[in-house]
């Protein structure tokens, strides 16, 4: 295909992806009340625990703050809602240039990465209320917990995104193994470093005082690492058997 045709094809698929994103944002904007209510549930729990004497609330520091928060939520949720459309447009644009083997690996990567990312987001969502409640417990008597809406939004969505991405990292290890960059045994030999990294990440992603959440997150990441290492070792053995069989046939 000539360069001009490539550019026109890219523009067409880009516009379709953007239109899908806009539709997803509109749908998400309609449900922002429910999303904000779910996000701020930990604040209401803290307010109930502190009683009527202390102020615990979400604060907007500007006139456009409420609309800005809804727009941010709509964008984030809209990207997720429209993901099947814009991912397909990206895939359809790249697929003609991929070999059959590359297509198989890409499909396998996406099929593993999407549920792992979703599981990570779910774990982050379950951890988030405990973090808010635990940090609020250190507030001195007589002081107030007034959460800035922009900061609170960033805290929630960054936590969900970071934990979600951390769950996908083992898939990258398997991809490196399939690409021949790292052997399964090389990955497995790094288990001490992997446990250390998982523990440090869990400690940074969760409050130092919330030991249960930290151990749960570190444990899940460690299990995912060993699963990736085990799959890589299995793939190496299968690859070695195929190569041995080809050698005997030759």
Automatic annotation (TrEMBL):
It comes from the Bacteria. The keyword Transmembrane applies. The chain crosses the membrane at residues 12-31, 73-94, 106-128, 155-179, 191-209, 215-235. Part of the twin-arginine translocation (Tat) system that transports large folded proteins containing a characteristic twin-arginine motif in their signal peptide across membranes. Together with TatB, TatC is part of a receptor directly interacting with Tat signal peptides. The keyword Mitochondrion does not apply. Belongs to the TatC family. Keywords: Cell membrane, Membrane, Protein transport, Translocation, Transmembrane, Transmembrane helix, Transport. NCBIfam families: tatC. It is found in: Cell membrane; Membrane. The Tat system comprises two distinct complexes: a TatABC complex, containing multiple copies of TatA, TatB and TatC subunits, and a separate TatA complex, containing only TatA subunits. Substrates initially bind to the TatABC complex, which probably triggers association of the separate TatA complex to form the active translocon. It is a multi-pass membrane protein. It comes from Microbacterium memoriense. This is Sec-independent protein translocase protein TatC.
